[in-house]
Structures are given as C-alpha cells and as structure tokens.
Amino acid sequence: MPTVAIVTDSCASIPESILEALGIRWVPYYIHMAGQTLRDLVTAQRDTFYRALLAAKRLPTTASPGPGDYYREYERLAQEGVQEIVSIHMTSAGSGAYQAAKVAQTMAEETIPGLRVEVIDTLNVAMCQGWMAIEAARSALAGRSLADVAGLVRRMIPTARMVQTADTLRYLYMGGRIGKAKHLVGSFLNIKPLIGMDKGVIVPLGTARSRRRAYELMVDILESSVGQAGRIKVAYVHAAALEEAEKIRKLVEQRVQVVETIVAELSPALGVHSGPGTAGVCYYSVPADA
Predict the structure, then answer these.
(1) What is the pTM of this model?
(2) pLDDT over threshold 70, residue 259
C-alpha cells in the first residue's frame, strides 16, 4: 500500500476497473427517489437508474455524503495502516461534499492519532474531478509525499475543463444546479446547449441547432483551449449515451493529440442533474515532456 491514500466520491464517475487498479477509495452520494433512499453506485446502478429516470414523474433529489460517511472511510484506512490521506471532492458551489469532508477531517485528526488528511475542493465535477483522483493515486503509488500529491491535484484544478451538451437543461434547472446558464433553459427545443464550468460554477458555452454541430463546437472549444499542438488526457463522459460519446471521440481525435483516453458513464447522482442523453468531455493539457 502507498503511504498516501486517495479518497473521492461516486460523482467522480471513475470507471470501476480504474478505481480497483489504483486503489482509490470512494464514498457514495445519496439519491432520494420514489420514497426510497438509494446509495449512488451501490443500490442505484447506472442502467436501471437511467431507465427509471426517463419514466419518473418527479425528479429525484440528491444529497452529498455526510461527515460521518467520510469519517468512516478515513477510519477504515487508518485501521489498515494508512497515516496520510488526500480527499478529493466536487465543486463546493454545487455540493456539500467538500464541507462534509472538512468536518470529517477535523473529527479524524482529533480522534485518530497520527492521521493527516488533506481535503481538496476541485472546483469541478465528473471526470475532471476523476482525473485529479486518478493522477493523485498514480503519484501516491509512485511513492510521492502527501504534499507532493496534494500539490499535483491543486495544479490540475485550473487546467481541467468540462464541456458537455444534452437535449435539454431541464434536469439541471429543476435540480438547482444551473448556475450561470439559466437563460438557456428557455431556448427552443431544437437548440442544443453547451455548458462548462468556471470557478466551480456551471457556465454557458454556446448553442447549436443539432447534436452534430454541438459536438463540432465542443471540439472547437477544446482545441482553442489546448492549441493545435496540444496534448491532452480526455474522458468521454455520458449518461446512457455511449454512442454519442463515441461520436465526440472520433471528432476530438482528428484534431488534437490524445495521450490517454477514458470512456466513463456518469454516476446516477450526477445523471439526476444532467439527464439521460448527456455527452461531453472532461480533459486537461499534458506537457510535451510528460
């Protein structure tokens, strides 16, 4: 086991095979649906949940893990011999996870002798958060110190970017996560909105008349941010829309140099807000010598 353990949560949407290979620990969000309380990716699995969401008459609600959820994960790691933890969370502007983890950090450091926990607000979401957890885990496996692993994550925060589109922003609007893109909600039904995130808040990036054109604009935005000679690591993310993610992938790989690719389906707790059919990219630039 590396000297530094990595903790994140289910909304990072990291594929299970990568979580297992890198030893990343995660804490599930809560989903309240049809009188039931579900745990994200535990009792709410992607396939069945997205089918149920399409048929739902009332939008489910979500809640971040509480301090006790994070504390128990920190405690389990300490019992396994871990003394240092980097805990990585989605934007504090859209979730209470970061604040809950900070409370758990205080609880753990007061009650578990020798334990150190670094809690980081990624100011992002989905596989942008996921990439940070992945690279942190790789750094920890390479034997880096707590300060080095946490520093790597913080350097990634301003460079990780998300661009996504869907047929509607209804789910984000109804879930209260619309941010600065609120004015796009009233767009004509044949308009495909593009959204991203800036300083932890959802922002509008444009609109298109078709999914194909939305994907082309998405790649324009990506290329503009990294340059034609840019090298990126990219996750193609989707909510019950794998074929759409693959369409985006073909366009991206014609335009920029991709050095690592992940295809990831959003967790149900994120899908509540993005809605089925969402597709997009989460990426960051990689230096030429990396």
Answers:
(1) 0.92
(2) yes
